[in-house]
Amino acid sequence: MSDRLIYECKFAVSDAGEIEGKAWDFASPDRIGDMIEPKAFNGAALPIPMLFGHDQNDPVGSWTEATIKDGGLHLKGKLLVDDVARAREVRALVQSGAVRGLSIGFITLKASPRRHGRTIHSLELLEASLVAIPMHPAARVTSAKSAVKALAIADAINRATAHFSQRSDTK
Q: pLDDT digit string (tens) for 49-67?
């Protein structure tokens, strides 16, 4: 078994390049059956490189925050859209939906076998990459500043429309 594994998830990006994503869901295994314990990410040294497709020669930004919340590992970072042409290209790929995954690269320090896969108890987080195909089925888009505002406005409009539709139906 490999000591370095790749896990993926979905994420969102703002026009300014800010990115947030749920990189791992602790409640379920990835497609090869591996699970990671929350404590495995203790001591992650940030910032870490934001790569495209795990290519060490293709850095497009950096990840500056890693938090354990809502049952998973969440990452926040920034594509260097003001300084790196490739970062602008990657942002366009993300915004179009062509690239929707986030994948972490790490070295396993301690793991135990499971019926299907392993439980990883300790690891060294090396990088997180933007990728086209996510590995973890429970991964999901979390937020981006511009996307959150747009969704909140759309929700408010939908609620108002439903409210006024109900009121006009009763008259």
A: 999 988 999 999 999 999 9
The rounded distance, in Å, linking the Cα atoms of 82 and 28 is 37
CA 55 to chain centroid = 17
Q: Alpha helices of 15-144 — where are they, by DSSP H?
A: 85-96
DSSP-assigned letter for residue 97? T
Contact in structure between 17 and 61 (CB atoms under 8 Å): yes
Q: How many whole angstroms separate alpha carbon 62 and alpha carbon 57?
A: 14
Q: How many helices (H) and strands (E) does the chain have?
A: 2, 8
Q: Please state the pTM of the whole predicted model.
A: 0.75
* DSSP reduced 3-state for 157: helix
CA 124/CA 19 separation, integer angstroms: 22
Tokens coding 144: 């981006």
The three-class DSSP label of residue 171 is coil
